[in-house]
Structure formats: structure tokens, C-alpha cells
Amino acid sequence: MKFTPLLTLVILWFVQTAAVQTQPFGLIETPQGEIYIRLFDETPKHRDSFIQLAEAGYWDSLTFDRVIPNFVAQGGCPDTEEGFNDPEYLLEPEIVRGITHVYGAVGAGRDDNPDKLSARCQFYIVQNKNGLHRLDGDYTVFGQVIKGMDVVDKIVFEKRDDTDVPLTPITLKVKIIQLNKSEIDKLLGS
């Protein structure tokens, strides 16, 4: 097959553009290290909410406020009722078949409301190596840790009180970074 010069230029542009296209990733900086999160396109409301709150610096004064070995590291709770009652802070569930609570899954916290509405301010990372599949279908999973589970493992084993709050606050700084395929490959060491 012979390509015209214009078609050849279009194909080259497309290949080059595809190589540099970026997608948003969450980056959580903690005193224990960095956690990189792939945000799922399949859960657009939760993905976009996470991006919006991160870009607004919402979590930058908060902590991982609940850490339980072989369960989760949970963060982002402002310790106010608004997070669970104010409609501005609630999201309809986006429970997607095939996206489950595996090791490193990032989910949206919620209270026991019957509509399974997510508290957009609160997220958790599954630390159980076998996953937490009893949560599947009840909580929205909107991301996956791609690097930094060693950091999550450290966080859940911090000394904590009898309500699972770390004795030494584990601060958060959450950012959104744009990565292209080669940057992702480099990050993952592939």
C-alpha cells in the first residue's frame, strides 16, 4: 500500500500525538513516601471529583485518619458532618462490574446510607493482599495504586489508638500529575 505525502504526515502526527498523550494520575505525598494512583475512566464522576478536590488542595491539611492492617488506609475525613450529609459532598455510586476491591484498589468512603452515596472527600486504599471482595458492589472503586503499596503497607502498621487513628498524624498532600505512556513505563520500571 502506498501512502500519499499528506496521509504519511497525518499518520506520523497521529503516532507522535498518541505517544505523548497524557492522562491524569493521583500522587499522594506522605512522610512515609509517595503513592501513585491510576484513576479509572469507567468511574468519571469519582475520577473528576478526586481531580477537582486534589487541584483545590482539599486534602493538603488532612491525614490518613484510619489505618487497619490487612484492611485499609483511609484518608481525607474532615471530621465534619458535611462530608456525609451535604449533597455537594455526595456522589451517586459508580459500581462497575469487573472493577473490584483488589490489593491497592482505591475506593470512595461512605456511611451506611441505603443509596450507597459516596462521600467525595473520603477515600481508602485496600491493603489486604487477598483483596476485600466483601465490599464489592457496595462501594465505588475509582482507582488503583500503580506504585507505592510499600508506602501503604508502612502506613497501616503505624502505631494507632483503639479507634485505629495513627498516634502520629500521617499527613497528605494530594496532587494530580499528567503522565504519558513512556513516563508511566519509566515509573513502573518497564
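That was protein one. Protein two is written in the same sequence-then-structure order:
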Amino acid sequence: MKNFQELLKKAKSSTRKNVVLVGAEDLEALKAISMAYEEGFVNPVLVGNKETIAKNLESIEQDFDIIEAEDPKEAAEKGVRLVSSGAADLLMKGKIKTSELLKAVLNKEWGLRTGSLLSHVAAIETPYLERLLLVSDGGMIINPDLTQKIDIINNAVKVAKNLEIDIPKVAILAAVEVVNPDMPETIDASILSQMNKRGQIKDCIIDGPLALDNAISEEAAKIKNIKSDVAGKADILIVPDIHSGNILGKSAVYISGGNVAGMIVGAKAPVVVVSRSDNSQSKLVALALGVLNA
């Protein structure tokens, strides 16, 4: 897919999914879920303070089901139970802390555990690229080890396939494109690339270490004489740690004028997690991303 419009178009062509908005007092999230309902790809279920939600619904001229919850903890439990029971297909974060929502998601009795690592995948659209990029993990795992990076890659590859990328090209990012013993992330990148070549990581093509320019720009890769099936053509960027992923995502928005939509994957259902500063349009695209992966 080239841009978010294509992503939205595909979501509109899919069957409606039942989406639980946990902490539905968030007006911008309500606007997004209302737009998704009007576009025909979600059925909203709202969980939170009934009085506040009803007032916000009135302001946007909508009328959706509301499940009363006295506090965020109760809202998270009720929302997660709806998904774990099969009554809903995915979760969306509203006016609730991410940590509080994920605590419910990971509940051993009624949560959404699968045994897989939970990781964050962000789709990035910028004016300078003619394709969407997936970036992981800039929102969950602070400093992933090699084993966790394998799970992060596998989770991102599943998302890419749901975006019609049959064999995703995965770039393992570092500051340089050569292995340097003083830079552990370059060693991990080399190992992951070799594991892919030996069939230990499947359904994708991995190369690394690659600096960001070499990963996404064919011209930069050509100038540096990097010959690779991934260099300049990456679909997925795997960052060394949460800091670099967070910075990369926000710089795409605030420096290059792009857009970002993200979610947490690895649970029984996607968890659409958006920033409080995101507008309703960004949250709409994040919903579409979640629906395509539900």
C-alpha cells in the first residue's frame, strides 16, 4: 500500500468488526470511532462513564451502546472480557493509561494472552516515500534482546501480510551498515539476517545492519555500494530500542509532515493504542489498521 487512503479503502471493503473503546470519554477517540462506523468498517461498543460519554455522543450526533464503568480499572476489565469472550474483535484505547489497559489484556484468567510477545507496530506515511513503512518496536519493549527481536519481527511480518505485502523486506536498523563489536545492535542485526537466510525466521527477507538512509533510499544504498534485496526497499524497519522507535515515529510526523498509526499485536486481538495528541483522523487510520489485523 502506498498511503493511508489505500489502507482505509481496504478497511472499508472488509466486514465490520466490533470495536470496544475503553475509556470512551475521550472525544477525539469517539469522533474516530464514529467516522469508522460511518465508513462501514466498525460497530462501536463504548465502555466508561455513561453520563460523560452520552454528552459527547450528543455533541457529535451519534447514539452507540454504552457499558457503564465506575473507573478505568473496571472499564479495562469489561472491555477485555468482551474481546476474550468473542463478543468483540479488537480493543481501542480511549481515556485510560496504556499500562492500565495492558494489565487487563495480560490478565491470566480472562485476558488476551497467547504466549507470544506483545509488541508495537506503527505504520508511517510520509510525503517523501511512495509506500507505507512499518516500524517496530517503538512502543512496548524498552531494550529488546535477540530472542525478543525475533518475536518483534514475526509480529511485524504478520501485520505486513495483512497489508498485502506477501514477502516483506525487513531492515534491522543501526547507526552504521557494518558489524562493529562496540555496537551490540549491529551484532544482533547480523545474526538475525543470517537466521533468516538459514530459514530460522520465515516469510520475509531480512538484512542488517542498515542505517536508516540505506534501508529506505535506493540512491543512498547505491552511493554506498550496498548490494542487498532489502537496502533501499525496506517494508519493515526494526529499531534497536524503544527510544529510537519513538523518535523515528514522531520525527516522521513533526519534521517530515507525515502521519503515524499504531497498535499492539501479539495478543488474541489487536489493541489500538493512540497518543493523546493524535487527532481523530490519525485515530481513524489506527482503527483501520486494527480492523485489517483483527
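The mean pLDDT is 94. Keep this in mind for the problem set.
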